[in-house]
Design a protein that fits this description.
Helix content: over 70%
Distance between the termini: 43 Å
Number of strands: 0
Order of helices and strands: HHHHH
Low-confidence stretches: none
Shape: globular
Length: 137
């Protein structure tokens, strides 16, 4: 909520810093402290290693080309990230309920959405690299 209010008020640095800072704190601080306190360590479910962790890494990698564009995340890029959040949440709900639509949903994401995303990321990166290369000449 803090990031949304900051973005609406034009405090974009605070919005981005809050998101990045809270992610770093949650992953490193909370998980690290919890592991230190837990005597036997913290068991990690196989589903986290097989799905959630790769998704988290993929999103972090997907952010890199998005940040090339003059240090600005355009509205359409924000919409893409929000779409992925909704899709990820929908997947978790479908999986938790062992819903019949899970296989079709997963196939649509793997064979349609992910390739389009990869092409978009490549295109955005290529365009920005060409723009920066042209400006240097």
């Amino acid at each position: 909520m803090t990031s949304i209010v900051a973005a609406v008020r034009g405090e974009r640095d605070i919005a981005v810093g809050n998101v990045v800072g809270s992610n770093i704190f949650n992953i490193l601080g909370v998980l690290g402290l919890s592991t230190l306190v837990a005597l036997d360590g913290i068991p990690v479910a196989a589903s986290v290693v097989a799905f959630d962790l790769p998704v988290m890494i993929a999103v972090a990698v997907a952010c890199l080309p998005m940040f090339f564009h003059g240090g600005t995340i355009d509205r359409w890029k924000g919409a893409v990230f929000f779409f992925y959040y909704v899709a990820y949440t929908a997947f978790l709900v479908l999986r938790a309920q062992s819903h019949d639509a899970l296989d079709e949903f997963s196939a649509m994401m793997v064979y349609f959405v992910l390739p389009i995303t990869a092409l978009t990321l490549i295109g955005v990166t290529w365009q920005e690299l060409r723009r920066r290369g042209g400006a240097a000449r």
